[in-house]
Amino acid sequence: YENRANISASGSLELRNLTVGDSGQYTVIISPRQQPTQQGAATLNVYVPVSGIALSQPGGDLVEPSSSVRLSCSSSGSSISFLWLNGTSSPSGRVHVADGGSALVVDNVTRYDQGPFRCHVFNPISNGTSDPVSLTINYGPEKVEIAGPPQIRLGQRLTLNCSAESEPAAGYKWTLGATELSNSSELSFVVQKSSESGNYTCHAANSVTQRTSSAVHALLVTEQSSLLRP
């Protein structure tokens, strides 16, 4: 306390340039003449303001539902506490905190765990919130669907479109039996022979999840006259 403390004639104590180390209980003892000694105490808490809040996440792909992710929050300040926010609410369910609240762990991630996540840090004299962090959750392909006509005439152009729920976007391949036809979500060609009837299969694949899924579209190729019959 050298050069930082001063005791006035009235007995009050003044401390200057406070540090966290000045925290503690201070006791004053008063010894009046010919009277019993009196004693009092006061507790002083010195805090460092919250600053420099940063939210980090490890690298690597997150795949639904097998992956887990750990978010870490760091901050300067003393006696700090942490509150995690997902969007505007506190995370729940498959989520728990670790490391005294400075880490958030999400187990078995789903596509609904994208965030944004924020870390709110506070102590008795200050508070602050990190910039948001959003997660990319990879999933699928799922719900593969094919749009197109079930019947077509010779000489007409056939167009089949394939779609799937997937993150990242799925890659597509079309087959008719064992024959590969196209590597696009759209299959389009002019029908030239009746043998092009059959089951057209759209194969969807996700390069990150390493998963595949498919759908089948049955097509009948007819002569023009057959379409006009009742």
UniProtKB/TrEMBL annotation:
Keywords: Disulfide bond, Glycoprotein, Immunoglobulin domain, Signal. The keyword Disulfide bond applies. Coiled coil: none annotated. Residues 49-136, 141-214 form the Ig-like domain. PROSITE patterns: IG_LIKE (PS50835). The keyword Glycoprotein applies. Gene3D superfamilies: Immunoglobulins (2.60.40.10). It comes from the Eukaryota. PANTHER family: CARCINOEMBRYONIC ANTIGEN-RELATED CELL ADHESION MOLECULE 5-RELATED, CARCINOEMBRYONIC ANTIGEN-RELATED CELL ADHESION MOLECULE 8. This is Ig-like domain-containing protein. It comes from Tetraodon nigroviridis. The lineage of its organism: Eukaryota, Metazoa, Chordata, Craniata, Vertebrata.
